[in-house]
Amino acid sequence: MRTSALIVFACMLISSHVPGQNLSAASRRNIYTTDLMNGLPIARPVSGIEGDPYLNAQWRRASVILYDVEDAIDKYKVQYNIHFDELAFNLPTGIKAIDGSRVKSFTFTGDTTGTFINAAEYKLDGTPLRGFFEVLVDGPSPLLKKYYVTIKGPDYQPALNTGSRNTRITKHSDLFFAKGDEVFEVKGKKKLLASFGEKSADVEKFMKQNSIYLSGERSLITVFTYYNSLLKQAP
């Protein structure tokens, strides 16, 4: 089964994008000079790129599970492109990528760990999602983290000598929790406690006893770890 899995994996691979390429999946043009006027490039000062669209700048070894493939692919280091939703593999033959829709999950197995599951397994307001969730807390109602990037083009104004000559790529994240195949964005203590239903009183008591104020990701991890322990105890 190992050999057949690698064959299927090889068939799925496509050429990967290198840092600095355009972030338009449709055009694949160079990010530095894509603006056109009457079919000709617009002249602008020399520019560069600040930031990158990758989950991690470094290549990391991971165990990758593909849809419709039984065995995990765990021989290579990978890098996830958030904007393109592509998982790139550092192969002996070069860097190749696979579309994120073909990847069920991947788990980093080196010094830095973390498990990422395909967001298409869930819906937000009834709409299927794209990309991956990082699993911060596993359980009946997991706490999930979704990454995305924003891209701001050069806005340099020569006359005023203001703005930036560079294209800026900034990474962001939002936190969600899941109930079944639906996810809900974490928004405020009152709404969050209400979502815990009959367990809300227990969770609120736990928060007061441990002086938890939901001031950040770490406190949410603590709360959802406790909340999921309650759900696992339920008959």
- The proportion of residues forming helix, as a percent range, comes to 10-25%
Number of domains: 2
Our estimate of the beta-strand percent is 25-35%
Main beta sheet strand tally, sense and closure:
12 strands, mixed
| Mean pLDDT over the residues | 85
The secondary structure category is alpha+beta
Low-confidence runs of at least 5 consecutive residues = 17-35
Overall outline: globular
Instruction: List the secondary-structure elements in sequence, H or E.
Output: HEEEEEEEEEEEEEEEEHHH
Provide a count of the helices. Answer: 4
Distance between the termini: 39 Å
Quick one: how many beta strands? Answer: 16
Please state the CA-atom Rg, rounded to the nearest Å: 21 Å
Polypeptide structure, described:
It contains four helices and 16 strands. The chain has helices at 2-12, 189-195, 200-209, 217-233; strands at 14-15, 36-37, 40-41, 49-50, 60-66, 77-81, 86-91, 94-99, 103-109, 113-118, 123-124, 127-128, 132-137, 143-152, 167-179, 182-185. It is α+β, with helices and mostly antiparallel strands. Strands 1, 4, 5, 6, 7, 8, 9, 10, 13, 14, 15 and 16 form a twelve-stranded mixed beta sheet that branches. Strands 2-3 form a two-stranded antiparallel sheet. Strand 9 and strand 10 form a beta hairpin. It has two domains: 2-185, no CATH class; 188-235, no CATH class.
